[in-house]
Amino acid sequence: MKRDRKKKLSGAMAFILLFGVVSLFSDMTHEGASSIRGAYLSLLGASAGTIGFVSGLGELVGYSMRYVFGRITDKTKLYWPMTIAGYILDVLAVPALALVGEHGWLAACGLLIVQRMGKAIKKPAKDTIMSFAASQEGVGKSFGIQEVLDQIGAFLGPVLLYLVMLLKTDGSTFRVYSLCFAVLAVPGAVTILLLLLTKRRFPNPEQFEPAPKEYVPFRLKKPFLLYIAGISLFAFGFIDYSIIVMHVSNTYAGLATGLAETSSLVNTGTLPLLYAGAMLVDAASALIFGFLYDKKGVSALVWSTVLSAPFAVFIFAARSVPAVLAGIALWGVGMGAQESILKAAVTRMVPKSSRATGYGIFECAFGAAWFLGSWLMGVLYGVSVPAMICVSVAAQLAAIPLYIASARLDRP
């Protein structure tokens, strides 16, 4: 019996690691794009408000539709078909950005929405089959390990684009950015190949987690509702990176055009490296706080929120390179918490038979709040940067009491 148990655990970890490598190449694709997305949209003619709106709308579509696809996944149990379909749509939309014209910001915005729809299709199914294996290895640790592999890809993607920009010295900025998106087709193709290999190796990942002795229906209990309210506040205040990279790139551009009396924060060619650095911090924090969550529970979420909440102060209020780097690092801590602790908590709150629906509800609320917050932050950026900073920090800190209340009510 012990030997069988050991074999089962090692199989679960093998699945977590292999699926993590799939996510690595997937993140190379879409996070590489994210590192220059805001600057690209601005170059194509989109305003700050438009970028904030589109970024938020993409998250709204990507998250709100997860409830629908989560319900479909729970009813059909087609975990792999839903995951594969979503991945294909996700990774194809990114290199297609290379095909928009020099003033094609509308087409680019449309492709970003398509990419988010791909994530909506895959995420509930992907997170659910991950949770089956994670339940055997420790949910915080397992999601933390996967996030580390995710963020290695999220680091390599921007670095790859930096190298492309470094080597592509001729041509307009638009042509350089177009080439960057075209290059991302390579890790996108690798993603699909590895995903099919993972499916072949583990055709029935739901078998990692034993079926409950009796059917437990999913109900929206008060602890889960309080948790949803908390993560919604966190998402509302968490400024999208598109606005951050637009701010940094515009500050640099202001020096050249005389529109801003500030010194250059970074060279435009190094913008992908800033995002790469944030992804490294994301990876480390996800693993650290993931292990901490398995041992300390909600306190890990509280401390990660306290640590990351002030990132906007450093990025938008300061005018120095060290402050911006510190702010982006704190932003990375918040991202790491999103991808590890927040998912781990859902696994513990929702029964196996309804987990895709639980993830769908969780991410639908998260996305709606992200949309409203991103839109508001984009508008406030053009009206009052100090007000934007205050709203961002206050909303994130306001989530902490709700996390604590949820954890207390959820105790057996």
Short note summarizing the structure:
The chain is built from 16 helices and no strands.
Overall strand count: 0
Q: What helical percentage do the residues reach?
A: over 70%
Overall structural domain count:
1
**Euclidean distance between termini CA atoms:** 29 Å
CATH architecture: Up-down Bundle
**Radius of gyration using CA atoms only:** 21 Å
If helices are DSSP runs of H or I spanning 4 or more residues, what is the number of helices?
16
> Average pLDDT across residues?
80
Largest sheet: none
Shape: globular
- CATH level 1 name: Mainly Alpha
Which regions are unreliable across 5 or more consecutive residues at pLDDT < 50?
1-9, 253-265
CATH topology: Growth Hormone, Chain: A
Name given to the CATH homologous superfamily: MFS general substrate transporter like domains
Query: How do the helices and strands follow one another from N- to C-terminus?
Result: HHHHHHHHHHHHHHHH
Please explain how this structure is put together:
- The chain contains 16 helices and no strands.
- Helices cover 82% and strands 0% of the residues.
- The chain has a single domain, classed as Up-down Bundle (Growth Hormone, Chain: A).
- The protein has 412 residues and is mainly α.
- The two termini are 29 Å apart.
Keywords:
Growth Hormone, Chain: A, mainly alpha, 412 residues, 82% helix
